[in-house]
Design a protein that fits this description.
The protein has two domains: 11-85, Orthogonal Bundle (Arc Repressor Mutant, subunit A); 96-267, Beta-Lactamase (2-Layer Sandwich), CATH 3.30.450.40. The chain has ten helices and eight strands. The chain has helices at 14-20, 24-34, 45-52, 56-68, 84-95, 98-114, 156-163, 167-173, 191-204, 246-267; strands at 72-74, 80-82, 117-124, 127-134, 149-151, 207-210, 217-225, 231-240. The strands form two sheets. A six-stranded antiparallel sheet has the order 5-4-3-8-7-6, with helices on both faces. The two termini are 37 Å apart.
Length: 271
């Protein structure tokens, strides 16, 4: 709502009114923070200026302000990277999500029962965004954290989420780039093979990732649905491949995983 001492804009004035509340300096600072990704954890000032389209002196003032406020830190080579204070923003947002709050208990019980790493993620474009990660074993091949985004076509969580999309949604979500880049020895690299895999997942209700994301890593995933029956997230149990052949993954870890996903679904109002 606008402040009490300002008039409420009419519908015709709505667009102009929204622009009047826009603080460009703040927007520029937020755009700078948004430049940092898992693949690009640090940036030079010149790159910040070029990618945000602001003059170099302006980029310098923005970066200096973010350093002063604790959101950026400067490295010895002059580059900048996000400071720990940025994490508080992300974790606060995640903790405010109903899904994350309701899933926390069932996932912790699943991690305890299996003794393995448990993850919860949602679909973000053609990638999986990890919202919860409970690490219980030494998965040296998987440097995954809350906030990581990994190719959906190469993860068990991603394949479960993709399997819930119809043909039009799937075509809009994926491109040739979705299948490119490094992966494990069994990575799916062509749409035709993915289509076959997704059909199987729809029929059985769960997915296995067999060294598709990285060598030495396997996982099994199942969907979480909301009250309307839509798949809103997926949970997996991730294990070292040398300790868990696919058969053991299916027989030992799939049942408690399905139980946990059903419990989270019920907490979300589903059945």
């Amino acid at each position: 709502m606008p402040p009490r001492d300002e008039p409420t804009p009419s519908p015709a004035e709505g667009s102009a009114s929204k622009r009047s509340y826009h603080v460009e300096a703040l927007a520029k600072g937020l755009r700078i923070l948004a430049l940092f990704t898992e693949q690009r954890p640090a940036m030079k000032l010149t790159d910040m200026a070029a990618e945000t389209g602001v003059p170099l002196p302006t980029a310098f003032r923005m970066a200096a302000t973010l350093v002063t406020e604790g959101f950026l830190e400067q490295l010895p080579d002059g580059a900048y990277r996000p400071a720990p204070k940025v994490l508080t923003l992300g974790f606060s947002a995640l903790r405010g999500m109903t899904l994350v709050e309701l899933a926390d208990g069932p996932l912790r019980r699943l991690a305890t029962v299996t003794g393995q790493t448990v993850n919860l993620g949602t679909l973000s474009d053609d990638r999986v965004l990890y919202l919860i990660r409970l690490r219980n074993n030494d998965l040296v091949t998987a440097n995954i954290q809350v906030g990581s985004r990994l190719p959906a076509v190469r993860t068990s969580i991603g394949k479960v989420l993709l399997a819930d999309l119809d043909a039009a949604e799937l075509e809009q979500c994926l491109s040739d780039v979705s299948f490119s880049g490094a992966g494990g020895p069994n990575a799916i690299r062509v749409p035709a093979r993915l289509a076959e895999t997704l059909a199987e997942i729809r029929d059985q209700g769960w997915a296995i990732q067999d060294e598709e994301l990285a060598y030495g890593l396997r996982s099994v995933a199942a969907p979480v649905r909301d009250a309307s029956g839509v798949v809103v997230a997926a949970v997996n149990v991730a294990v070292p491949a040398m300790e868990f052949p696919v058969g053991r993954l299916h027989d030992e870890l799939r049942p408690p995983l399905l139980d946990a996903c059903r419990e989270i679904t019920r907490l979300l109002g589903g059945s």
